[in-house]
Amino acid sequence: MIHVSLSYISCAVLFGLWFGDAQAIPPLGETDQNAVAISQTQSTVEVSAQPSARFVCPHTDRINATECFIDATEHLYTVCRQVKAIELIEHGFDKAEDGANAFKSDFCRRKQKVSMPPYFDAALREAQMFFSCETIRHINELYAVWHTSLFALKQRPDETETEYQQRITVPYLAFAAYRQQIHESIARTSQNIDVPCPTLTIFKP
């Protein structure tokens, strides 16, 4: 009975990963203390054109491209972490990577790797138009950290379950740190305190 229930949950998760949500994100409204400091007279980069936007960045109803990308890094990582957790329950830690046992988590990582670039590109365009080079650098670094962390959800040889569970919680600290750095760099831009940065290579997974 437990196996049947878990299989049903797995199918539901995969269905959600594939189709997402086709609802569009409303235009940016009045910003609050946690939102990006963009003048209401400026236009933000459109993110609602992506059909899965509601799934990728679901935690804010009124959002711009930069906030959507920040939201997506933690959300999509968590989605694949939960899919992996289902595999660990179904097959046990020692056999979760054997053969087809890891199919669902492998699919999740591949799916999110393909889903993220449009939102990363939109955040970069928004930062290039309205923010500073420092903001662009932080967005670029966050994308690299997210990609590395996502594929590090795969178990490592000779790793204990305790070590694995501790390791996969660490990226949340990095996500939170970059969220703060991006917001602070945007705040400095709004105060005309632009911090220059050298030419950087945009991360391409």
Compact overview of the structure:
The protein is 60% helix and 0% strand. By secondary structure, the protein is an all-alpha fold. Helix 1 packs antiparallel against helix 3, helix 1 packs parallel to helix 4 and helix 6 packs antiparallel against helix 8.
Question: What do these coordinates show?
Answer:
With 205 residues, this protein is an all-alpha fold. The chain is 60% helix and 0% strand. The protein is built from eight helices and no strands. The termini are far apart. Mean pLDDT is 76; it is low at 1-44.
- H/E order of the elements? HHHHHHHH
Helical segment count: 8
**Uncertain parts:** 1-44
Global mean pLDDT: 76
Helix content: 55-70%
* Distance linking N and C termini: 41 Å
Strand content: under 5%
**Cα-based radius of gyration, to the nearest Å:** 18 Å
Shape: elongated
| Main sheet properties | none
Structural class: mainly alpha
How many strands appear in the DSSP assignment? Answer: 0
